Amino acid sequence: MAQHTPIGDRPSSHPENEKSARFYKGDCQDQVNMGRVLVKKRNIPKGARVLDIGCGPGNLTVEIADGVGPSGSVVGVDLSEARINIARKTFTNPALDTFRPNLSFLAGDAHNLEFPDNHFDFVVANAVIHFLDLRKSLVEINRVLKPGGGFAACTAAGEYLFAPIEIKKEVQSREQYRAAHIDPNLGVFAFPKQSHFEDVLVETGYHSTEIDVIHGIIVREDPKAMINFLDASWSETYIRCIPEKLQATAWDDFEKEFEKLRTERGIEIDLAWMNVYTTKAPADNHPSD
Ligand SMILES: C[S@@+](CC[C@H](N)C(=O)[O-])C[C@H]1O[C@@H](n2cnc3c(N)ncnc32)[C@H](O)[C@@H]1O
What we know:
Helix content is 35%, strand content 23%. By secondary structure, it is an alpha/beta fold. S-adenosylmethionine is lined by residues 6-8, 28, 31-32, 35, 54-56, 59-60, 77-80, 83, 109-111, 126-128, 131-132, 233, 235. It comes from Sporothrix epigloea. Belongs to the methyltransferase superfamily. LaeA methyltransferase family.
């Protein structure tokens, strides 16, 4: 089975900068739409204390904060300081209309959260779990959740092929990339399969898991727009992780492959994603007890 490689360990000559973070904020509507479906079904109660893991620039986090109301609170955590800065500037400045007093942001790693045990009523992880070490992050989320607390995660379903991953592996395995000592798996990760996700949830102390698999599409007007969207979504590890000397060639090669996915709507890719809902076992039912 393909391994999940934490994003921090993935080779990248281009650590995320402010520009890329801003680009993501302007082009994350697909993720936010999926996140809305995720949180709407679970109906996080008013007054809940919520953690949004891998919150990015906070576009979904603010909607969760509005949902829990003034008696609740939401903290967004993200590895990218650039994204956290944008989120703070947008939502934590009392001088702006977008200010939310029940919302805060912290730069940090989902594998090692700076919160006490049993702290949150609910944790959300939208479009991030595939960048993490699944087991390690589920253990950490379990630690910070109160017993009986809820966890909702959205990620693509590993049972289905995702064209951008197939294209990336195929292009990077071509002779001229190999000759430049580029690993075909540079920046590649695998989406978790449903049965694997369920098994790891049981092993790490969750119960009552429900999973919805939803089929959708992502469309951009041309290959360049699609590649820019993917690269920002993958924190610059889709194409900008390829060494400088092959960048122009890589853009050309990737664009040609995405052009083959053109329909009357534009460049179109299928996406099957999983909405995973689960609960931390109550204290008397935890496997480690
Ligand atoms: C595709 S974006 C999703 C952002 C947001 N949840 C949304 O729905 O728009 C993935 C996010 O996960 C963050 N991320 C990746 N690895 C992380 C880690 N180890 N800890 C915390 N955040 C991480 C990235 O910086 C990025 O902002």
